[in-house]
Write the structure tokens for this entry.
Amino acid sequence: MSHIESSKNAALTRRKFLGSAMATTAGLTIAPGVLLFRAAQAKPAAQAVTSKVRWGLLIDNTKCSTGCDDCVTACKTVHKLEGHNRPETDVQWIRKLTVTDKQTGHVMSLPMMCQHCGNPPCVDVCPTGASFKRADGIVLVDRHICIGCRYCMMACPYKARSFEHEVVHDQSVSAPRGKGTVESCTLCVYRVDHGKIPACVEACNEAKHGAMLFGDLNDPESEISKRLTKYGGKEIRADLGLNTGVRYQGI
């Protein structure tokens, strides 16, 4: 057997072992007081994640004000995303883009995060399986097996992933992070699995902006589905055929 074949077999064996361990363990300690949530848990807790649900986000840009960063602040606060005054390398799970229509001069503020694609290119290029998509459409990174190669960052057309360059201090128990791994918006999966909405949506609602709506895209009776049916919604880079879980109105 060649060295390459031996390495591949070892990698497959390791991945099988990790899969079995995650299926039988309620949580894995990766730092004092920090547990990795089980990928197979959903709300209600007794039910497994199912493809009958497709979680999604609708952003109405006509209600998203330039200069407002309530969603960004909420994300940073809840997940304890530290800043190091290095915009090019600091971790960002959601950011606000200023977009100008070259023909009309119209300026709009565009929230950008992981688009939770139905056909995620980040998952396709990941050599270890660390990037994966849950049955309910949420795209995540398993930091236990992320090797920091950053292939997923290069594959993402939305530049929605960040690499953690620094040692992470004062982590959130619900959102474990670590130096040398890639991370991005998780749609606040730990909140979703307990019947809550993402922190960015909650902050937008509390500020009475009403620019963000979270819900089940597969349920025709959900508010998000009804609004998309009535007013439509656009994907960023729809030409790529990624079937994004984040849709926009007013762009």
